[in-house]
Amino acid sequence: MKAVLSRLIPFSLAVLTLLIVFAMTSGCLSKAKYVKKETQLDTETVVMKDMAVATNVALYKEWSETVNGLLKAHIILRNKRNATVQLEIKTIFRDDQGVPIETTSDTWFPIMIESNEDYHYSRLCPEPGGVSYQFLIKTAGQ
Questions:
Q1: Out of 48, 63, 76, 85, which could bridge 53 as a Cys pair, Cβ 3.0 to 4.6 Å?
Q2: pTM over 0.85
Q3: Which of 106, 124, 123, 132 has the alpha carbon at shortest distance from 70?
Q4: Contact at 8 Å (CB) between 74 and 84?
Q5: Are 41 and 54 in contact (CB under 8 A)?
Q6: Over the stretch 70-107, which tens digit does the pLDDT of each residue have?
């Protein structure tokens, strides 16, 4: 009987230790925020202008559509930080020859994305004939 107990106690302690480790690990994992796969920002249509953007923000989704004959481009950016990020975005639309379409509001638009949030940004091409687009993204004030 003593032989059985002497083998059973170390085995029981080992099982108990594994259960405690599993319980602690499971609790930590259940509290972590689930983040879907994200794409880096430097693509043909979305270009980062500084390294801080690449570090703090990811491209979650990108698409375009036609609205009343005009190209409308969309992106959803995801803030990967635990702090607010302030960015500026400029949209360039191009015709079928690749020539930029001139607009009266050729400017950088400021946006602010809260901690660990997504931000939907879209622009409508001001003239017919836009077939492609490019978003330029930089840290605000740079």
A1: 48
A2: no
A3: 124
A4: no
A5: yes
A6: 999 999 999 998 999 999 999 999 999 988 888 766 78
